[in-house]
Specification:
Strand content: 25-35%
Oligomer: single chain
Number of helices: 7
Number of strands: 16
Largest sheet: 9 strands, mixed
CATH superfamily: Metallo-dependent phosphatases
Structural class: alpha/beta
CATH topology: Purple Acid Phosphatase, chain A, domain 2
Helix content: 10-25%
Order of helices and strands: EEHHEHEHEEEHEHEEEEEEEHE
Shape: globular
Distance between the termini: 30 Å
Length: 311
Amino acid sequence: MKASIVDMTKQDVVQKNYPSVLNFGDVMFDRGVRNIIENRGRDPFEYIKRDFDFIDKFDIIIANLEGPIVEMDRNECQQKAYNFQFASTTPELLKTIGINMVNIANNHSRDCFSVGYESTKQYLKQFGISYIGDQELEESYRLVMVNDKRMAFVGIDQTISPALTDKAYALIKKLDSENDYIVVNIHWGEEYKLEANSTQIDIAHKLIDNGADVIFGHHPHVVEPMEIYKGKMVFYSLGNFVFDQNFGDTTVGLGVGVEFQDSKSVYTLFPFNIKVFAPEFMVGDERTVFCEKYLKSLNPAGCSFEITPIS
């Protein structure tokens, strides 16, 4: 049974044998995506719904919400090169594929200033979608209990604030002392770069040193490699999920699921192609080839692998 998260509280309960999380990258419902929704009646999740059984088993499904949900005059928003504004129907659209948590710590969350930022949070609360990454450090995380396991979800933006402070790492350490698992979403890196930079690597290692169990990155709009560090996983960039970019490597994205079992973590990759802004899961040989290439250092059989954390 999928977790139902109410944003008005910091803790919710769901029963399952073990907690499981599925993370996607950037979702953007403006510009070309908004055009196909409003003027062509197209559902950007039409392909995902066809294969919904792939992801329905996960308790928490997360994506990075790359812009504000607000109904206001676009001229009153920031006037910059790339400025996004999502319709009030966005939360309902997210819920149709089970997304029950979003990260709002990114460089577009305030595209419509504080009005859009607060509107986003209110719309998410209204539809029962939790959010992580609020601007204030003490509000940047969400606590969820799944089958008696305490989980902390943390959202971090590394694009507007170029360096994490000691207070941020101290928060991770504190959450680690109080919870069983810590899942970090972080907006970082360089756009369209296929490799993580030294800053990303340094931050990832420090987050894990302070207690993070898995790190999911986004912002580059392309898939970047994964790394195992001290028995914990870092996925430097999951790429786009729903976006209107259609050049180079921006049309390939990755979802990553993790099942936190008692003695191990089981990971499963869900690579997809983005076709006219709609993600479609790879299947068969195409999926196998992607996974073999992405996980070449592990040499797994298929798209799933197990990690035993280092004590």
